[in-house]
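Structure in, sequence out. Go:
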C-alpha cells in the first residue's frame, strides 16, 4: 500500500502545476455538425446575394461562386492570413521584367569619334574597343594597331538586349520616326505643284490662242467664272479618267483582281426601314435579319399602294408570288396522291396541270350550283332586280 501511494504521488508531482510557460494538453475540437450546417447556409446566402461576400486580406471581395479547389489555400500559406486568393494571382517575384514600349533598337547610328591612341583590352588588329581580335571584320593588318597606334577604327554601336511583352512585340509603329513621313508629304506636294503649274500653262496657252476670252467688265464676270469652272472640270476629268476603273457603282463593290462583284445589303440612297416610322409601337424591326414584316405606315391610315414601302410581307404577297405559292401547294398535294410533278424539275407540266385543275374546279362549282337550283329552285332570287325607271 505504501509503495502504491508513493508511486501515485510521484506521478502527481511529475504533472505540470500550471505555470506561464506550460503547454496546454487540450486537443483542438472537431467541427460540430451545427457549425458545418451554419457554414453551408452562409455560403448559400452569399451565392444568392442575401449576405455580404467574404473579404480577403487586401480588402477585395471573394466571389462565392469560385469552386473550392480554387479558393482553398495550400498548406504552405500562413493560416493567419486566411481567407485569401493571393495564391491564385500572379506572384511578383515570378513576373518577368519587360522593356517599355518606347525602347527600341537604334537605327542609323553615326560613327563615333575615332580614338587617338590604343586602349588596353581593345582589338589588336583595328583598335576598336567594342570587339576582340577574333571578331574583327577588317582586313588583318601586317602590324596591328596595338603596336603601331595608328589608324584606330571607330567603335561600333552595341544594340541593347530588349525584351518585350506580347503587345510590345506586335507594336508595328514602335521605333518609327515620324519625320520620315515628311518625305512622303513633300513628294506629294511637289507632284501637286507640278500639276497646278501644267494647268496654269495650259490655261495661258488657251488664252493666248483665243479659245478663252479674258473680259474684266462686270457683265461678263459670271460668264468668266463659269468658263473657269468648266476649264477646271475638264482638267480634273482627265485625272478622273485614270481612276475610272476604281470607282464603284452604288450598291456594288467590284474587285478587278478577283473578278467578283459583292452586292451590298442596301443602297445608301434608300431610307432605312427603321426610319420609316419612329413610333416605338409601330412595326417591329429585326436588326439581326434587317427585316420589317409589318407595314410601318399602318397606324397612319395611308393606303399600302400609296407608300414607298409597306413591309416585307406586303412585297411577298404581291405580283406572281401568290400564284406561284398556289402552284407549289398543288404540286405537294399531287405528290401525296401519287402524281410525280415538281415545280423546279418540270414547271411546264405543273403549269398545265394547274390550269386544267382550275378549269375543272370551275366546272365542278357550276355543275354543283345547277344541281342545287334544279332540286330546290330559287333561280329568281339570284337574278339581279330590274332597273327602276325614273
Amino acid at each position: 500500500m505504501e509503495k502504491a501511494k508513493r508511486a501515485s504521488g510521484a506521478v502527481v508531482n511529475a504533472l505540470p502545476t500550471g505555470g506561464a510557460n506550460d503547454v496546454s494538453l487540450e486537443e483542438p475540437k472537431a467541427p460540430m455538425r451545427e457549425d458545418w450546417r451554419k457554414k453551408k447556409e452562409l455560403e448559400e446566402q452569399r451565392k444568392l446575394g442575401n449576405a455580404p461576400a467574404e473579404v480577403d486580406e487586401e480588402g477585395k471581395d471573394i466571389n462565392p461562386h469560385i469552386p473550392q479547389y480554387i479558393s482553398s489555400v495550400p498548406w504552405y500559406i500562413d493560416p493567419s492570413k486566411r481567407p485569401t486568393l493571393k495564391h491564385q494571382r500572379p506572384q511578383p517575384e515570378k513576373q518577368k521584367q519587360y522593356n517599355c514600349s518606347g525602347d527600341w533598337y537604334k537605327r542609323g547610328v553615326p560613327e563615333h569619334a575615332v580614338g587617338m591612341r590604343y586602349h588596353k583590352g581593345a582589338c589588336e588588329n583595328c583598335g576598336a574597343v567594342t570587339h576582340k581580335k577574333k571578331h574583327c571584320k577588317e582586313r588583318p593588318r601586317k602590324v596591328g594597331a596595338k603596336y603601331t597606334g595608328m589608324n584606330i577604327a571607330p567603335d561600333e554601336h552595341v544594340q541593347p538586349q530588349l525584351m518585350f511583352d506580347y503587345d510590345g512585340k506586335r507594336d508595328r509603329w514602335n521605333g518609327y520616326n515620324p519625320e520620315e513621313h515628311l518625305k512622303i508629304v513633300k513628294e506629294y506636294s511637289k507632284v501637286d505643284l507640278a500639276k497646278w503649274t501644267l494647268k496654269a500653262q495650259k490655261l495661258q496657252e488657251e488664252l493666248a490662242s483665243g479659245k478663252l476670252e479674258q473680259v474684266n467688265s462686270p457683265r461678263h464676270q459670271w460668264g468668266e467664272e463659269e468658263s473657269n469652272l468648266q476649264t477646271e472640270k475638264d482638267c480634273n476629268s482627265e485625272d478622273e479618267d485614270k481612276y475610272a476603273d476604281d470607282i464603284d457603282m452604288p450598291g456594288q463593290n467590284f474587285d478587278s483582281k478577283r473578278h467578283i462583284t459583292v452586292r451590298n445589303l442596301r443602297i445608301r440612297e434608300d431610307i432605312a426601314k427603321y426610319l420609316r416610322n419612329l413610333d416605338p409601337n409601330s412595326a417591329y424591326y429585326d436588326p439581326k435579319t434587317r427585316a420589317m414584316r409589318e407595314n410601318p405606315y399602318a397606324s397612319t391610315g395611308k393606303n399600302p399602294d400609296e407608300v414607298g414601302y409597306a413591309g416585307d410581307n406586303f412585297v411577298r404577297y404581291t405580283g406572281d408570288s401568290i400564284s406561284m405559292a398556289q402552284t407549289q401547294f398543288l404540286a405537294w398535294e399531287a405528290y401525296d396522291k401519287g402524281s410525280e410533278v415538281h415545280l423546279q424539275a418540270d414547271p411546264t407540266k405543273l403549269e398545265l396541270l394547274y390550269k386544267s385543275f382550275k378549269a375543272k374546279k370551275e366546272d365542278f362549282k357550276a355543275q354543283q350550283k345547277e344541281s342545287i337550283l334544279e332540286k330546290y329552285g330559287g333561280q329568281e332570287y339570284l337574278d339581279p332586280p330590274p332597273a327602276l325607271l325614273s
